[in-house]
Amino acid sequence: MPEMPEVEGLARFLRGRVVGLGITKARVAAISALKTYDPPIDALVGARVEDARRHGKFVDLVLEGGLNLVFHLAKAGWLRWHAALPETVVKPGRSPIALRVGFDDGSGFDLTEAGTKKSLAVYVVRDPSDVPGIARLGPDPLDEGFDRDAFAALLEGRRTQIKGLLRDQSVIAGIGNAYSDEILHAARMSPYALAANLDGSEVDGLYEAMRTTLADAVATAAGKPPAELKDAKRRGMAVHARSGETCPVCGDTIRTVYFADTDFQYCPTCQTDGKILADRRLSRLLR
Predict the structure, then answer these.
(1) Counting beta carbons within 10 angstroms of the beta carbon of residue 73, is it exposed (0 to 12), middle (13 to 18) or buried (19 or more)?
(2) Tens-of-pLDDT digits for all 287 residues of the chain?
(3) How far apart are CA 196 and CA 141, in angstroms?
(4) Where is the Formamidopyrimidine-DNA glycosylase catalytic domain (predicted)?
(5) β partners of residue 78
(6) Rounded CA gap, 131 and 123, in Å?
(7) N vs C: which end of the chain shows fewer Cβ within 10 Å?
(8) Cα–Cα distance measured from residue 14 to residue 63, given in angstroms and rounded to the nearest whole number
(9) What are phi and psi of 78, to 5 degrees?
């Protein structure tokens, strides 16, 4: 799933390519992806792009006339950029394309989604806060005003495992499974640590790890076209999706904990005092 650094990269890419251009085409190929009906998708045609912004994991194309084209790529979605938009007609249900947008210089993009579980979401709204997922977002972890004390206040009293809390978009916006793995590894913290139990030095270390990890990832994504962002993300990972490989910090073997529909990676030496965490699938079978 694209997370904050990659979505920021997409927003910056679009800002540099389409601001000032007019939309000539907006065609929905996957009806399930379009979550709004007023304003209609056709209202985008003729509007010029004023900005491209990010809200958590949402991309927001700000258009003249008080319109916003907002999209969330979900788990298997992506943006495919075309310097020259194909002339082929996009037929509903016959391709991975969910939305095609064209501009008056001949360029454009497709929003695509792989797999059978369709979660990509497109919204045409008058205000980004009209999108429920944006309205619920917590603070952006890289905002200047989100300091260590603000972070500590979010953790206080929460009897929640820190892995899940970092991924909760209503608490902190933009962090998903991959970067929560990376942040916890950098902080040398167990994914199962309870937020409310962290002492001051642990909060300091986690906050610094979060800011540094995300800032570095945003810097890596900056300036890259969409086609290169996924590979750049994979190359930058120390533990996520590297099960069985060697930890770059201590040399231990990176391990995975599996759940019904997800998993996470960690280093036992760096994060759990050498303890191997139980595979939740096996634990469930042994009850």
Answers:
(1) buried
(2) 899 999 999 999 999 999 999 999 999 999 999 999 999 999 999 999 999 999 999 999 999 999 999 999 999 999 999 999 999 888 777 789 999 999 999 999 999 998 878 899 999 999 999 999 999 999 999 999 999 999 999 999 999 999 999 999 999 999 999 999 999 999 999 999 999 999 999 999 999 999 999 999 999 999 999 999 999 999 999 999 999 999 999 999 999 999 878 899 999 999 999 999 987 655 443 33
(3) 19
(4) 2-82
(5) 112
(6) 7
(7) C
(8) 13
(9) -160, 165
Contact indicator for 173, 179 with CB cutoff of 8 Å:
no
Residues paired with 255 in a beta bridge = 266
Partners of 112 in beta bridges: 78, 97
Whether the bond between 39 and the residue before it is cis, its omega within 30 degrees of 0, is yes
- For the chain, domains (ranges, CATH) are 4-135 (3.20.190.10), 148-285 (1.10.8.50)
Residue with structure tokens 């009906």?
Answer: 37
